[in-house]
Predict the structure of YwmB family TATA-box binding protein.
Amino acid sequence: MLKAELIKKRIIAILVLGTVLVLAGWRYGTLQTNRYDSREAETALRSLLIISDQAPGTLDKLVVKWQGDWISNHEKPADVAAQIADQLNIPTVNKLVENGHTVYRSVRHSEDLRIRLNVMERQTGQWYVVVQLESNNAGRERLIQLHKLCAEQLKSMGIQAQWNTALQRSLQTKESKDQLLKLTEASLAENISMQAKERYTDATTVAISYKAPELPLMIQSGEHQVQMQMAVHEDREQQNTRITLGFPLITIEY
């Protein structure tokens, strides 16, 4: 039990590190992407989906996160949050207080698509906006259209937002996690050039960050520029294996 908890903590630590790196990249401009042009945003996301479809397994989860800073200039954050919610066709925002900071939040959850909006107070007059879109394979086209909408809307509202994406595929296989990783790398390498830069492994998970210059999203991670992260995780309770791809890093649970 103690070993299992330690492994879980290590996975969470890797996930948190990835999130921090991505946020740091947005903050200091090291994450490179077509920030606002909706057609470019759509093209970039579709290209990443085409690449990820080369990985084995069934697409169970697709997540796109838009997030960035917004400074209030005589505009009420409640009105901004309400406008975003209206454009995304999600419920009226609720005002909450978390850790002493005001948060405006709305969540819409259907069978094929989940949308989550948070407009969070950082300090007086400064806010952080997060729009998370999540779907399964059946809802991916609808998610792509909402992704385009976010690119247009957040720019028009003066929100300095960037995006990243992560995908999760599952399968039942007799291959070990290391064997499956190599097979998946070989499959992806048919479409892009990729070079492993950072590696993490434990009893059930192996995760690698890659330099893949052809991909549209990039972040500086230590001394390396990385465009993709992949993890293969053996779920012994469910008796299946999950392949998680993050562009540029994984920001969802393995």
The chain has two domains: 2-31+169-247, 38-165. DSSP finds five helices and twelve strands in the chain. The CA atoms of residues 194 and 212 lie 4 Å apart.
